[in-house]
Amino acid sequence: MRKADKNEDDKMSLKELKHFLRQINVEVDDTYAEELFRKCDKSNSGALEGPEIKHYYDLLTHREEIDVIYKKYAQTDGHMSSRDLLSFLHTEQRESVALGSAVRLINMYEMDETAKQRECMTKDGFLMYMHQQEGSILNPAHSKVHQDMRQPLNHYYISSSHNTYLTADQLKGPSSTEAYI
């Protein structure tokens, strides 16, 4: 984060914070980023410092489902050891990998040097991993498009049931586009 503090005043302006978020591959809507910034700027100084920066990052990156998974597998002093990460990869991601792959992921995505030396992954490192292509549940072999997808949407036949839009009773129940999304 010190690299993102361009004027080296130990404070982060909204502009510096947005730049930092881009550096660590956290995409966020500008309006939401500003709203969180105002919420965390307890000193009303127009800049975040110390615990305010940490609070901003925690609010921005909090995902309950990640917390649940991390707590389930972080069995080594509140961190995920390489063996814990391997267990996650086998059980949740259904990957057939060896311990070396877990160590490689820790070295690649863990930002805390102490944790990295202990071959452990913090929640922030785990979050970084989960936001990357390697952490995606989608098998990359299935991402190839096998048809010409350069045409306008109305040129394609979209197969769906005539009742797909119904959410309850067929005759008088409510309808929704949710099934199409």
Q: What is the terminal-to-terminal distance?
A: 37 Å
Total E-strand runs: 2
Task: Summarize the helix and strand pattern as letters.
Answer: HHHHEHHHEH
Q: Helical percent range?
A: 40-55%
**How many separate helices?**
8
Short structural summary:
This protein has helices at residues 14-23, 30-40, 51-61, 64-73, 82-91, 99-109, 113-117, 123-130, and strands spanning 80-81, 120-121.
Task: Give a description of the structure.
The protein is 42% helix and 2% strand. It is mainly alpha-helical and 181 residues long.
Characteristic terms for this protein:
mainly alpha, two-stranded antiparallel ribbon, 8 helices, 42% helix, 2% strand, extended
Layout of SSEs?
Layout: H1 14-23, H2 30-40, H3 51-61, H4 64-73, E1 80-81, H5 82-91, H6 99-109, H7 113-117, E2 120-121, H8 123-130
Antiparallel strand pairs: 1-2
